[in-house]
Design brief:
There is one protein chain. This protein is mostly helical. It has one domain. It is 72% helix and 0% strand. It has 6 helices and no strands. Helix 1 (2-17) packs antiparallel against helix 2 (27-46), helix 2 runs antiparallel to helix 3 and helix 5 (113-126) packs antiparallel against helix 6. It is globular and about 45 Å long.
Length: 150
């Protein structure tokens, strides 16, 4: 368990110190995005239980890279919501889903087209509430994950 806590602390520190991940967000929205990123990272680190440090580092590389990319995409999306066209919103969602597939791993089930369309329809209502937008997006992305897989 010590390796888990040490790995998690290193990973968390890396996310918390990377200002690019939340640079365009207010404090509350940045915290919501950081919480999401830390939850993904915690899940990835949990997958390394029982691994030696070198194997764990290899196993964490892709999911943590994808987590950072997901966070940067959400940061940009939230900051630029009012200037993006409908096609660009769909592209941003596709980018987030693509990174989520890597970050959450092989058992990840992406949202259906219908779920994605419903989110994109609600996006306009959520645009004035960055925290609500991030939380609703997280809910969409994690729709099929259970407590055991989170």
């Amino acid at each position: 368990m010590d390796n888990f806590n040490e790995r998690l602390a290193r990973v968390a520190e890396g996310l918390l110190e990377n200002e690019q991940l939340t640079a365009d967000l207010d404090d509350a929205a940045a915290q919501a995005l950081l919480d999401w990123g830390l939850n993904i990272a915690r899940r990835a680190v949990r997958q390394t239980l029982g691994m030696d440090d070198l194997a764990a580092e290899d196993a964490l590389y892709a999911p943590l890279r994808a987590t950072r990319r997901l966070m940067r995409a959400v940061n940009k999306w939230v900051a630029r919501q009012d200037i993006l066209g409908e096609a660009q919103h769909s592209e941003m969602l596709a980018k987030v889903v693509s990174q989520a597939q890597i970050a959450y791993g092989g058992a990840y089930i992406p949202p259906t087209q219908e779920q994605s369309a419903q989110f994109l329809e609600r996006r306009g209502v959520l645009a004035s509430n960055p925290v609500g937008f991030i939380l609703e997006l997280q809910k969409l992305i994690e729709h099929a994950l259970t407590e055991e897989t989170l």
